[in-house]
Amino acid sequence: MGMNRREFLKRTATIAGTAVLGSSAHTSADQGPVPESDRYAVLVDTTVCIGCRKCEWACNEWNKNPNQPVKAFEDKTVFNAIRRTHAQTFTVVNRFINPKDSKPIYVKKQCMHCEEPGCKAACFVDAFKKTEKGAVIYNAGVCVGCRYCMVACPFDIPAYEYYEPLNPRITKCTFCFDRTGKEGGVPACVKICPTETLRFGKRKDLINLAHERIRNNPDKYTDHVYGEHEVGGTSWLYLSAIPFDLIGFKTDIGQKPIPERSKGFLFITKVFEVVAAWPLVFAAFHAISKIRKKQSSQDANSTKEGKHEQKT
Amino acid sequence: MNRKPDSTSWVQNKILLGMTFPEYIKSNFTISNAIAALILIVSIPVMIYRFIYGLGPSTNLSDTNPWGIWIGIDVLCGIALAAGGLVIGTAYHLFGMKQYRHFVKPAILTSLLGYLFSVFGLLFDLGRYYRLPYPMVVSFGFSSIMFLIAWHFALYIMILFTEWSPALFEWLNLKKFRDFFHKLAIWATVFGVVIAGGHQSALGALFLVAPGKLHPLWYSELLPLYFLLSAIIAGLTMVIFESSLTHKAFKRQLEHLNPAEFDRLTLGLAKAASAALFTYFFLKLFGLAHSNNWKYLFTPYGYWFLFEILGLVFLPAFLFAYSVRYKKITMARWTAFIVVIGIVLNRINTSVIAFNWNAPERYYPHWMEVVITVGIITMEVIAFRWIVNRMAILYDHPDYDPSH
Fold first, then answer.
1. Which domain holds residue B143?
2. What is the C-alpha separation between A127 and A120, in angstroms, rounded?
3. Relative to the CA of B280, which of A69, A70, A271, B220 has its CA 20 to 30 Å away?
């Protein structure tokens, strides 16, 4: 190639600089959490739920998932196994038995709509979004199908269309963002709930309400609003009569938002890549100049180096 | 190879190893080729089946267990075991350990193929494999560790290609290209160190977001450091393990090598691996103490963990040290094999066995997942052999100056 050494070094340095700085700059940007004042939430009072599963029916109906007549949801045998969300099931109600009085406790499960979602931080094509109203929604238009969001979700919510061969999507509860966007709109499950187990409102107000209920009925509730602080807080909040680990909730996930767990690493890597690059460049330069010196001395007395290079 | 007026054609010379087509076909009737052919006959249709019918019918993956052996083996093990190019390249170019020159080219080729086939394996796992370039061109998830990995893979494959390409251009007799890329090698190594360090640790960092799912004995805030250090160990031991294999398989090409010198250099690598293994072992102990996880040690998972770090880390660290001290070359080679197994087990533990350890539903690979993984590894071995048989990987090309 017809360029001299200086030109070559200059070019490589430019290319290399762009590569390192560019690649690390990608990891830096991160939008902060959405202002909290306007966010909505749902408070689930598990002490009131009767396990009618009408919310499941309404959810399927609104989200155009395969559905059965509402009568079929009265079937209690489904409670024999603990169920989870799946590709065409965005919400399920599970039954647990209260060890104190052997009465059933019904617990609705769906996406918790984290304040700082793990799925969003995990996604390498930024397919998830936390809307201003609180919903965590997914954009199938950019999804590559790596399923890292499913690994990152502390609640095991996102499901996958495994039987969709070419255009599989992640599916999960949308917090009915297409209903709540309108004036007075509430999620389909909240709307149909006959017992006021589910209550839709401003997150701040619902947290106050939940604590008020616990204060007023200390014998009825365990003193814990699940979702107030778990993994940095969620848009779905739960009240329970007994400790939450007895009704299928993970209590070992901590209060640290999931994205915080990877943020530190990304920062350190960025710093390392920017800072470590330069000493290495100088080391390389040093190595090259040493080789050149050696070569020039070698030209003078051609010996030693390259002992095994002779062709056989 | 500059026999221009020769009667043999380019294809015959370059592709058929100087034989005529029937001769070449005949020369390929060997037992190892028969086994490889059998594997490919089974695995290629399964690969096509996966691309047409999707993940559901071809895997045991589920909503609870979204990742299986395609991530655990093809990607995590594949990349860790492909760290040889990084380790030897750094030792040779940056630390000036010129005596390792003959290890560089095979290690770089192994790494390049390791990365390419890891990405190939990843295609099977991705639901929409045809969108592979999306994180580069369509939508950017800046806060994602996977995003960092995607970019680093792409950059590092280019770096490895740059490092390997002189051999390709020597084969094609393109002197100008060869000399240009030959000069770039040292710079490629510099940026390779930065980029490879970043993504080897990032593969461990992938699991930082799953604290409740990965067993506490494997989950640690030090995961990125564990993955980085074990990748360096993997690089060292893969070079020992693989060079001992290639020296058997490609004896004919290695007449220029002095076996005593080769053994001495192998023990040098074993020494470095021993030090790295002891460091890794003590870091693991430190992590165990720091998280106060002693209570898990005497459970079934605890015994499995102890097997991993005592049997496949501490023991080989000691065996390496012993074989260096008493110049036991065979022992060093077997120890390298044990360590490679250990690294593979560590990656499978992290991603499959200790992952979702308390979930109601466990994952076992579907036979098609196994067949595809075996098929990919077979293709990689075939590609390696094809290139080594044709290009100057194990020796210096007689027409070119090898010095940097």
1. 27-390
2. 7
3. A271
Report the residue from B56, B135, B255 with minimal CB separation from A125.
B135
The closest alpha carbon to A39, from A131, A149, A110, A139, belongs to: A131
Residue B109, in any domain of the structure: yes
Tell me the C-alpha distance between A134 and A202, whole Å. 10
Q: Do A162 and B180 touch (CB under 8 A)?
A: no
* CATH code, domain with B267: 1.20.1630.10
Angle at B145 (CA atoms; ends B143, B149), nearest 5 degrees: 125
Kindly give the interhelix angle for B259-290 and B315-325, rounded to the nearest 10 degrees: 150
Domain positions in chain A = 36-256, 258-294
The string of DSSP letters for A195-235 reads TS-EEEEEHHHHHHHHHHHHHH-TTTS-S--BTSSGGG-BS
Is A85 in Cβ contact with B63 (below 8 Å)?
yes
**Residue A95, CA atoms < 13 Å, CB-side half-sphere:** 15
- Distance between CA B57 and CA A152 in Å, rounded? 24
- Residue B18, domain member (yes or no): no
Q: Please indicate if any CB of chain A lies within 8 Å of the CB of B180.
A: yes
Q: Which of B71, B99, B102, B148 is the best mutation test for A, with the most CBs of A within 10 A?
A: B148
Beta carbons within 8 Å of B277's beta carbon, 6+ residues apart = B233, B313, B314, B316, B317, B320, B339
> Of the candidates B200, B231, B50, B29, which has an alpha carbon nearest to the alpha carbon of residue B123?
B50
Nearest C-alpha in A relative to B188 = A16
CB contact under 8 A, A144 and B131: yes
In a domain, B10, yes or no: no
| Cα–Cα separations (whole angstroms), residue B142 to A251, B194, B207, B372 | 29, 19, 17, 32
Q: Report the domain count for chain B.
A: 1
Instruction: Kindly state the tokens that stand for B278.
Output: 């002891």
Contact status, residue B368 vs residue B46, Cβ threshold 8 Å: yes
How far is it, in rounded angstroms, from Cα B199 to Cα A21? 15
CATH of domain A36-256: 3.30.70.20
Which pair of structure tokens corresponds to residue A97?
A: 């038995």
User: Any bridge partners for residue A42, and if so which?
Assistant: A200, A236
CA separation, residue A19 to residues A22, A286, B155, B336 (Å): 5, 22, 8, 35
Site of tokens 């200790």: B354
CA-closest candidate to residue B136, choices A263, A126, A125: A125
